[in-house]
Amino acid sequence: xxxxxxxxxxxxxxxxxxxxxxxxxxxxxxxxxxxxxxxxxxxxxxxxxxxxxxxxxxxxxxxxxxxxxxxxxxxxxxxxxxxxxxxxxxxxxxxxxxxxxxxxxxxxxxxxxxxxxxxxxxxxxxxxxxxxxxxxxxxxxxxxxxxxxxxxxxxxxxxxxxxxxxxxxxxxxxxxxxxxxxxxxxxxxxxxxxxxxxxxxxxxxxxxxxxxxxxxxxxxxxxxxxxxxxxxxxxxxxxxxxxxxxxxxxxxxxxxxxxxxxxxxxxxxxxxxxxxxx
Length: 278
Ligand SMILES: NC(=O)C1=CN([C@@H]2O[C@H](COP(=O)(O)OP(=O)(O)OC[C@H]3O[C@@H](n4cnc5c(N)ncnc54)[C@H](OP(=O)(O)O)[C@@H]3O)[C@@H](O)[C@H]2O)C=CC1
Ligand SMILES: O=C(O)[C@@H]1CCC=N1
Description:
- By secondary structure, the chain is an alpha/beta fold.
- It is globular and about 70 Å long.
- Strand 7 (131-137), helix 6 (143-154) and strand 8 (157-161) form a beta-alpha-beta unit.
- It has an eight-stranded mixed β-sheet, sandwiched between helices.
- It has helices at residues 14-25, 42-52, 60-66, 79-86, 105-112, 143-154, 167-175, 177-194, 199-219, 224-231, 237-247, 250-277; strands at 7-10, 34-37, 55-56, 69-72, 95-98, 117-121, 131-137, 157-161.
- The protein folds into two domains: 7-164, 3-Layer(aba) Sandwich (Rossmann fold), CATH 3.40.50; 177-258, ProC C-terminal domain-like fold.
- Helix 8 (177-194) crosses helix 9.
- 55% of the residues lie in helices and 13% in strands.
- (2S)-3,4-dihydro-2H-pyrrole-2-carboxylic acid binds at residues 101, 171, 175-176.
C-alpha cells in the first residue's frame, strides 16, 4: 500500500469508478480507506461497495473529517451543490483533487474557501491502469501535495503536469479521447459485418490492430506518418482505403472534434463561473 490517505469521492459515477478500480487493482490503498457518496443514487453506491469493498458514506461529518484527500467527481453542473454538501465539515488539512471538466481551480478555491486544489484530468482507462492524466495545481496547493497526487495517478497510468490554461485542451484530447477510439471501433465492427466477417473474429482482429498500432507508436522511434507510410503500398489496399478517408475530410473531422471538445470544456467553465458569480 503506497497511499496512506483516506480518500472521499464526492460523486461516484464513471470517472470515480475508473479511478477506484485502478487504485485497488494496483493495491495503492485498502478498499476500506475509500469512501463514496452521491447525491441520491444509493443503488450505485451499493453496487460499488459490493464490487470493490469501498465504504458508503453514512455520516458525512465524520468521513469528511477523517478524509485527507477529497476527490470532486460530480458533473460540473453539480459542483456548487456538491461542495456545499461537505463544506460545513471541512477543516484545514484537506487536499482537494478535482476531475471536473472546465471548472477552474480559482472557482473551486472560491467555492471551498481557499483550500488546496489540484485539477486532474484523467480518462476512464484508469480502470485498467492506462489513464493519460494531466495535473495542474491551484494557488494553495504545495509541491508535496502535487507529488502525492502524481503518485496516485501514476499508479493508474501516465501523468503530465501542465499549466492550467492547457487543461481544456487536454480535456478535448485525452479526457474525451477514449470515446473517439471506441467510436472508430464501432464503425470498424459495422464495416467488418458488412464485409461478411464473423463478429467475434472481427472484434479480435480490430482490438489487436489498435493495440499493435499503439505499441508500435510507443516502442519504435517512428512518427505516426512514417508508420502509416510503411503500411501503405503504392496502388495497394491501404492507399485505396485512406483515399476514402481523405474524401470524407477525415483530418478536418478529427481536428474539429478535438478542438470543439476543448472549446466545450472552456464553455462549461465560463457558464458555471458566470452562474456562481451572479
Ligand atoms: N467520464 C469521463 O470519461 C471523464 C469525466 N471527467 C469528469 O468527471 C466528472 C464526473 O464524470 P462522470 O463520472 O462521467 O459522471 P457521472 O454522471 O457518471 O457521475 C457523477 C456522479 O456525481 C454524483 N453527484 C451529483 N451531484 C452530487 C452531489 N451534490 N453530491 C455528491 N455527488 C453528486 C452523481 O450522483 P447521483 O446520480 O446521485 O446524482 C453521480 O454518481 C465530471 O465533472 C467530468 O467532467 C473527467 C475526465 C474523464
Ligand atoms: O464528456 C465529458 O464532459 C467528460 C469530460 C471528459 C470526458 N468526459
